[in-house]
Design goal:
Shape: globular
Number of domains: 2
Radius of gyration: 19 Å
Number of helices: 10
Number of strands: 7
Structural class: alpha/beta
Helix content: 40-55%
Strand content: 15-25%
CATH topology of the largest domain: Nucleotidyltransferase, domain 5
Low-confidence stretches: none
CATH class of the largest domain: Alpha Beta
Largest sheet: 7 strands, mixed
Mean pLDDT: 93
Order of helices and strands: HHHHEEEEHEHEHHHEH
Distance between the termini: 21 Å
Length: 249
């Protein structure tokens, strides 16, 4: 089977969920979805989609329309409904913003900022005990992890333990996690007076799960490099990539 095709098992599961969102079950629905996945996987411009998927403009319009309706976020939320939130790991990663992502016409902040890597966005991610995505936020690349962490933590429902690296060593973050009923495992910096006595290092070492999730998400080139002008559309791409990590579950 070509790499751009969905297996029958995965398409059957995906179609059942998509039709819950009042999509019209037209004959070309599968090819449209596969065209969107092809673009996500390869990062090609919409105009360069192979003819197999139909008219590129029709595929793009479907993606954009469904993005406006929040369909991809809904898909992600349905698939992660039975998430294991005993442990939650958080971190952030830079995403290079391609030159085609600049110049959005609406005049709103599209979360592209200057960092040491140039024009970037930042993907802030929380994963569960199995290393599967739970929630994420998108900011400009100039936004510090600590600054965005409280907003990210607020999106996590009923987690028991929050684990992060020492870049998140902030009393505000600790207080936020504890206020939401979480035990917080964040190592303190070397200059900390309190130190790390009694720190749960074995559990902290599992923090590689969030790094692994970033590595899996960035196998999709439209996630690893931001081509979308609108934050809304890039969030949809990330939601779809997260959904596909959950789809085999």
């Amino acid at each position: 089977m070509p790499r751009y095709r969905l297996t029958e098992e995965r398409w059957s599961k995906l179609k059942e969920i998509l039709l819950q969102f009042s999509l019209y079950n037209k004959a070309g629905l599968r090819k449209t979805v596969e065209g969107i996945l092809f673009r996500m996987r390869t990062g090609v411009p919409w105009r360069d989609l192979p003819d197999h998927f139909g008219k590129w403009n029709s595929v793009y319009k479907a993606f954009n329309d469904w993005s406006k309706k929040g369909l991809w976020k809904k898909l992600f939320n349905v698939l992660k409904a039975d998430s294991d939130l005993e442990w939650v790991f958080i971190d952030g990663t830079y995403v290079k913003a391609h030159q085609h992502s600049a110049g959005a016409a609406d005049g709103y902040d599209e979360n592209i900022g200057k960092s040491r890597a140039g024009n970037t966005s930042k993907l802030h991610l929380a994963v569960n005990a199995y290393g599967l995505p739970e929630v994420f936020t998108i900011t400009g690349g100039h936004i510090n992890d600590c600054t965005e962490a409280p907003a990210l933590i607020e999106k996590i429902d009923a987690a028991q333990v929050l684990i992060a690296d020492k870049g998140y060593d902030s009393q505000i973050i600790r207080d936020k996690g504890e206020a939401l009923g979480m035990s917080v495992i964040i190592p303190r910096r070397k200059n900390s007076i309190k130190g790390n006595k009694g720190f749960d290092w074995p559990l902290y070492k599992l923090r590689h799960l969030v790094e692994n999730a970033f590595a899996r998400l960035k196998q999709y080139r439209a996630v690893a490099t931001r081509y979308d002008k609108l934050t809304r559309n890039y969030e949809s791409i990330v939601s779809l990539a997260c959904a596909f990590l959950w789809l085999p579950m």
